[in-house]
Amino acid sequence: MRAAITDRSALLIVDVQRDFMPGGPLPVPDGDSVVKPLNDLIGRFESRGLPVILTRDWHPRDHISFKERGGPWPPHCVAGTEGAEFHKDLRIPRDSIIISKATERDKEAYSGFEGTDLDDVLRKRGVRRLFVGGVATEYCVRATVMDALSSGYEVLVVEEAIKGISPEDEERAKEEMVRKGAIIVKLDEIL
Ligand code: VGL
Ligand code: ZN
């Protein structure tokens, strides 16, 4: 389905951070593949003066989601560490908006909307339509998209710009997002 970048659109990039890339502690297989399509989109949003927003997983050292505290994950994206930095090839515009999430020791938050001012930021700028990419499809992308839809945004998930940890779970997450109203678009369908 074709989709236009309207003047009420924003680009929302979820957790494209070093620890989620191959070689990191919580790797998304072939996670690097999202960088090129995202850079393409960043250029298009930037040249139109439209918002580029990046979420980042930004955990305290002893976050509840870490194995040593009984959580499911190895330590990752500890605030201020190299592993929490954005992918070094991502062309981040100077005026991008960065949303840090899951910053509280005893609380997990996969969604970029949970415990952050993302909704306020989008409202203030009159954003109605979100183009979404990032990792991991079945965790933070999915949760962010579901919350965006609940809050009334139009959500277009960019096929080449997302990547999951498990192909089966990624497929299920895509179906769930579509069922709730998201549209999955290919890069060359974006006008
Ligand atoms: C994520 C697992 C743990 C994600 C974050 O960004 O999808 N996944 N923390
Ligand atoms: Zn995390």
Automatic annotation (TrEMBL):
The keyword Hydrolase applies. PANTHER family: LD05707P, PYRAZINAMIDASE/NICOTINAMIDASE. GO terms for biological process: pyridine nucleotide biosynthetic process. Pathway: Cofactor biosynthesis; nicotinate biosynthesis; nicotinate from nicotinamide: step 1/1. Residues 9-187 form the Isochorismatase-like domain. Belongs to the isochorismatase family. Its EC number is 3.5.1.19. It comes from the Archaea. SUPFAM superfamilies: Isochorismatase-like hydrolases. This is nicotinamidase. The keyword Hydrolase applies.
